[in-house]
Write a sequence for this structure.
């Protein structure tokens, strides 16, 4: 296992900055194994992040890596992908970065169906700033800014992105790491906007305020509450109460944006090209 | 046609769009806003004709982000907006300054604050252009006062952006942007273009933020075998965060500013009219420079020795040029379509010199009439 991922790590940038028990490292591991299987070269692969714990993932991986502004990674990625469609563009974001401050960019990038893979690490909290509630914090749970319990409902971010037009939507967990690797691999291979939500643990910012002090407890919660799409089909509705679905939730074939725009260039050059 | 179609009746915003194409710009991301929208509309037609890309993003923030993303990919990139949108772009403009990505931002100014006077001109964004994004950062701001200048300065903006790896702001206004004038386009062979400097070393020896003598580090677009990391956190020469290293922070801040300050002779662009024997100097820029030019003509016709220093570069501020002329005149009149923004810089440039600095301001969506400037000249002489 080590050999597959170590070649993609910037050894001199280790150790990473994440807390003990964080899910981010496991997610990066799954991403690296998926990339390795697909055989993407380091030079053609770009990983763009915004701000937050998940954003720190790209400093340690040996691709073309850009840490950008809070919530705006998809804007940067869209510009880069349009300028250089041959590149493999991956965005790693979090629940705050991606669904909060960057929510508008998330839905519009999904709508365009541009060939970018987005991995959204959902740890239910703003971890880097110390545990404030996000748009994906479950109602009733506690955060430093929800000291009496979260009163806002949370997005189902997969439904949101599918509704906005993403042509590949999947959900995995840190616990189910083999499944996660498989889902990320499918997302990377998909032509169009692909989205993977990863249910992750933040023992420091979320767990200790919500009666789940240990990372293992949090991962067991993932194990006990995740139901695959296939398994869910065979279960009666009462058995699915309080559970969440994992696996490929949505997939369709739709024209990809940079290819559509190449047709625009072809039409424009025929009709009015001067040069 | 003997002129090869180079004599045109053109709007300022159109000149900006056409100049961008001539400068080699092949990417535009923007968001509709009056009075800048024509730039987007024209480039939506023109860019794909030359193999470039136009995209209307979901908002101003994303359009600034996309422009930086495209430039990281190696494509010259532009966005255009007006005051409210310019405000929204500021965070990412700071990002471009910090990670040193070339890009050009056009702000066609309208009356503010806030949504203000959406269709009427103003010069209220001069300080926003300088200080709009947080933290000390270098920036280059150019201000055209005619359609031809819009064309030329758009090309200059791209050249400065490429040469100094910095965002450059073209600060137009609703007068210059919407004005139609006859212009003679330069022959393409006369247009000198700068391209960002490439590294001369192989990937293994490439240190992304190690600057040359000129203070500018060589740049490689993504995916050309030179893998690197960019972060807007304070970073060392390797490009990785160094957020607890005061020496690194100091050295990066100094280099970012020095790469501009070292090249003031090249960056500061001004024009002088009738300054040789002037007793009164008008310092003006953008739309107000048009009024000032007319006022100087009126004054001279009446035997009054007035002259004009027109700034095309607003930031870095042409302090040396102001000071040099200030030593010879009694007073400097500074007409601005705002409550007085660059007048403070003029005062700073002439401190300890025996010269009066007189602001002349208008902020109601109208231009300053030449007669108002003439009246001010008469007060002084």
């Amino acid at each position: 296992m080590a050999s597959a991922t170590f070649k993609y790590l910037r050894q001199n940038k280790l150790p990473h900055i994440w807390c003990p028990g964080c899910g981010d490292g496991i997610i990066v591991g799954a991403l690296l194994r998926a990339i390795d299987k697909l055989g993407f070269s380091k030079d053609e692969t770009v990983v763009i992040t915004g701000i937050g714990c998940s954003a720190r993932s790209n400093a340690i991986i040996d691709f073309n890596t850009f840490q950008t502004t809070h919530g705006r990674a998809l804007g940067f990625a869209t510009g880069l992908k349009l300028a250089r469609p041959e590149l493999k563009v991956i965005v790693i974001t979090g629940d705050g970065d991606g669904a909060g401050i960057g929510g508008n960019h998330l839905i519009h990038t999904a709508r365009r169906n541009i060939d970018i893979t987005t991995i959204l690490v959902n740890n239910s909290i703003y971890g880097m700033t110390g545990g404030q509630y996000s748009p994906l914090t479950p109602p009733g749970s506690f955060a430093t800014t929800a000291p009496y319990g979260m009163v806002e409902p949370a997005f189902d971010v997969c439904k949101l992105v599918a509704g906005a037009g993403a042509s590949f939507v999947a959900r995995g967990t840190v616990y189910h790491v083999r499944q996660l690797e498989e889902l990320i691999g499918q997302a990377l291979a998909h032509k169009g906007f692909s989205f993977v939500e990863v249910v992750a643990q933040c023992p420091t910012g979320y767990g200790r305020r919500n009666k789940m002090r240990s990372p293992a407890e949090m991962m067991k919660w993932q194990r006990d509450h995740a139901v695959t799409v296939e398994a869910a089909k065979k279960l009666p509705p009462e058995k699915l109460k309080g559970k969440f679905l994992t696996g490929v939730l949505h997939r369709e074939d739709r024209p990809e944006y940079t290819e559509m725009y190449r047709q625009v260039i072809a039409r424009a050059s025929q009709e009015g090209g001067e040069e | 046609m003997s002129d090869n179609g180079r004599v045109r009746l053109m709007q300022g915003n159109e000149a900006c769009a056409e100049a961008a194409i001539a400068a080699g710009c092949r990417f535009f991301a923007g968001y509709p806003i009056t009075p800048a929208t024509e730039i987007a509309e024209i480039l939506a037609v023109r860019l794909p004709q030359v193999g470039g890309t136009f995209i209307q993003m979901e908002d101003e923030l994303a359009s600034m982000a996309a422009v930086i993303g495209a430039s990281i990919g190696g494509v010259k990139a532009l966005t255009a907006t007006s005051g409210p949108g310019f405000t929204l772009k500021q965070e990412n403009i700071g990002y471009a300054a910090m990670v040193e990505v070339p890009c050009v931002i056009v702000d066609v100014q309208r009356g503010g604050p806030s949504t203000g006077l959406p269709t009427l001109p103003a010069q209220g964004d001069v300080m926003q252009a300088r200080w709009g994004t947080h933290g000390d950062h270098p920036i280059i701001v150019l201000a055209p006062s005619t359609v031809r200048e819009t064309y030329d300065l758009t090309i200059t903006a791209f050249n400065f952006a490429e040469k100094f790896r910095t965002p450059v702001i073209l600060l137009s206004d609703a007068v210059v942007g919407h004005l139609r004038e006859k212009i003679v386009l330069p022959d393409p062979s006369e247009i000198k273009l700068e391209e960002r400097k490439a590294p001369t070393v192989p990937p293994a020896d490439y240190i992304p933020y190690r600057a040359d003598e000129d203070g500018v580090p060589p740049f490689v677009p993504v995916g050309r075998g030179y893998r690197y990391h960019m972060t807007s956190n304070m970073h060392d020469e390797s490009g990785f965060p160094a957020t607890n290293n005061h020496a690194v922070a100091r050295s990066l801040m100094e280099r970012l500013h020095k790469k501009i300050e070292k090249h003031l002779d090249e960056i500061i662009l001004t024009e002088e009219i009738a300054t040789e024997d002037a007793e009164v100097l008008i310092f003006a820029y953008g739309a107000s420079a048009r009024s000032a030019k007319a006022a100087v003509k009126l004054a001279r016709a009446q035997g009054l020795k007035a002259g004009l220093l027109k700034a095309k570069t607003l930031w870095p501020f042409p302090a040396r040029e102001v000071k040099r002329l200030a030593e010879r005149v009694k007073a400097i009149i500074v007409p601005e379509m705002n409550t007085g923004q660059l007048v403070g810089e003029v005062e700073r440039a002439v401190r300890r010199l025996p010269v009066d600095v007189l602001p002349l301001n208008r902020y109601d969506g109208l231009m300053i009439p030449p007669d108002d400037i003439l009246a001010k000249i008469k007060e002084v002489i």
